[in-house]
Amino acid sequence: MTTSPSVAVITGASSGIGAVYAERFAARGYDLLLVARREDRLRELAAKLESLHGINVQTLTADLAKESGMQAVEEALRSNERISVLVNNAGVAHLAPFTAGSAELHQADIALNITALTRLSLAALTRFQAQNSGTIINIASVVSLHAIAGSAVYSGTKGYVLNFTRGLQQEIEGSNVRIQAVLPAVTATEIWEVSGVSMDHLAPESIMTTENMVDAALAGLDQGEAVTVPPLHDLALWEAYETARLAIFDASRTGVPAPRYQQ
Ligand SMILES: NC(=O)C1=CN([C@@H]2O[C@H](COP(=O)(O)OP(=O)(O)OC[C@H]3O[C@@H](n4cnc5c(N)ncnc54)[C@H](OP(=O)(O)O)[C@@H]3O)[C@@H](O)[C@H]2O)C=CC1
Ligand SMILES: CC(=O)[C@H](N)C(=O)O
What we know:
Elements: E1 7-11, H1 16-27, E2 31-36, H2 39-53, E3 57-61, H3 67-79, E4 83-88, H4 103-131, E5 134-139, H5 152-171, E6 177-182, H6 191-195, H7 210-222, E7 227-228, H8 235-251
Parallel strand pairs: 1-2, 1-4, 2-3, 4-5, 5-6, 6-7
This protein binds NADPH dihydro-nicotinamide-adenine-dinucleotide phosphate and 2-amino-3-ketobutyric acid (AKB).
NADPH dihydro-nicotinamide-adenine-dinucleotide phosphate binds at residues 12-18, 36-38, 41, 63-65, 69, 89-93, 112, 139, 141, 184, 186-187, 189-191, 194.
């Protein structure tokens, strides 16, 4: 009996980081379901990967900031039992002062970066938990850890992605399901032009290639990391951050206002 290959679903596969994840999962022998709005780009990538790797690639044109788009991908995740990987990669940034953006713009960014990622995780994880296998990769950002002027909404959404992922990781502990958060820093993709900040204004030495970012993130996944920060060389910094974060959480369970607040 021959078994069909597993399927990896990659959102935001029409460019940048998502397109490289598609190539890498194709090279690992997965069939693919590629999701984004630009159908021509998805089809071009699908044809290339099918011919290069002899795999089957489906495309799903969907606007994940809209209800109909979210539902279409949820339906695919629920109905296709061969899906074993979800890369929640589609995301958008508008880097400008908060009050310069409209309510509609902020709402659409939140819908894509938070609501779609949450709903697709629910659709995938429900089945992954039932079958006790499967992998979700959530693309957060180093701005999950820090916000600067002009990034309030974007950093806020990425802070959600990190904490949401941490919560899910607690819930699946002890199972064969894997959930990884990836925190890229500056990576050379189209997101910068969309965001309103040209890459020409960024320090060249801070910019990572998409290939290096994805390969490092997959190395982190293969090593069993829960949170992967591809460009961070000094692991001791991350360990100190994690230690302080958990220490603050534990030390906050006193039930008594700190002396500095007692008047
Ligand atoms: N590049 C960087 O410096 C960093 C990026 N990230 C994160 O990496 C992820 C990938 O971004 P990146 O590759 O850089 O940027 P790109 O702009 O190259 O890719 C974004 C992808 O998301 C898709 N997308 C955007 N809006 C929608 C929508 N409404 N519905 C469906 N798909 C959508 C785009 O496709 P289409 O337009 O065809 O719909 C595209 O495929 C994002 O989550 C981003 O926040 C995190 C840290 C750093
Ligand atoms: C676009 C990004 O997420 C990037 N990490 C940044 O440094 O702002």
